[in-house]
Amino acid sequence: MGTFHHDTSPLHGITVVVETRSGEVWVGRCHDEDETRVLLLDADVHRPDAAAPDRAEWLGRAARFGVFPKHRQVVVPRAEVASLTRLGELA
Amino acid sequence: MPYSPLMVRPMREELTTIGVRELMTPEDVDAFMAEKSGTALLVFNSVCGCAAGMARPGVRIALGHDKKPAVVASVFAGQDVEATARARSYIAEIPPSSPSIALFKDGELAYFLPRHRIEGRNAEAVAADLTRAFDELC
Fold first, then answer.
1. Under DSSP, is residue A64 helix (H, G, I), strand (E, B) or coil?
2. Of residues B40, B50, B113, B138, which has the active-site annotation?
3. SS3 B73
């Protein structure tokens, strides 16, 4: 079940995890997504070269509490998306 | 920008009519948080669809459970902005989200249900999470 909007993606308003082919992991509120891109609001990112925390720890904390909104709006090109899942499914 | 008070009133009343105390100023929040004994539930209310369809009904169902917090209050994110900011300052290590629900025990955060564990579910599932926390902590 998405939110109560009928003219947007089923993921509109849902907090999602976007894993990219380059190893970045974005967590944010999906505003819209289609065959060209995923548009996230209030997002944070974990990059593969991050010293700490590691990816699993970062995702684990995100799954428990969410993320601080460090990026107001992010567009991830669909071609770079390796997976798109609901953060709630990780909790 | 806050919505019209007229539009938001039913969203407030959905909680106040079941005994939830609204904290509308930072001073209200400080007074609520000053009580350090027992259990207290704080609901971060909001205008969004997951507050209407899942969070508020979930709280209503959960508060019908045998075990429940001694006191229950709410702040309204996006409406009572200063009160919400003050409430969030007490759990500054937790990313802000609304709706969300915090359960305090003896003044310490003991359980937190963030927005992403409310959205996309139903009121019964939210209530089940809350009542599990009530059984454990209250």
1. helix
2. B50
3. strand
State the residue for tokens 């947007």: A8
In 10 A of CB B98, how many CB atoms?
23
Q: Is B112 helix (H, G, I), strand (E, B) or coil?
A: strand
Tokens of B102: 């915090």
Tokens of A69: 């909104």
Cβ count within 10 A of residue A4: 12
Q: Do residues B136 and B65 make contact, with C-beta atoms less than 8 angstroms apart?
A: no
The one-letter amino acid at B134:
F
DSSP state of B1: -
Instruction: Compare all CA atoms of chain B with the CA of A15 and give the residue at the minimum distance.
Output: B116
Q: What's the pLDDT tens digit per position in B75-112?
A: 999 999 999 999 999 999 999 999 999 999 999 999 99
User: Does residue B138 have an active-site annotation?
Assistant: no
Rounded to an integer, what distance in angstroms lies between the CA atom of residue A33 and that of residue A12? 8
- Residues whose CB falls within 8 Å of the CB of residue A32, separated by 6 or more in sequence, listed in order: A8, A9, A12, A38, A39
Q: Can you tell me the ipTM of this complex?
A: 0.86
Residue found by looking up tokens 């920008």 in the block? B1
From B20, B23, B40, B48, active-site residue: B48
User: For residue A6, what are the contacts with CB-CB under 8 A and spacing of at least 6?
Assistant: none
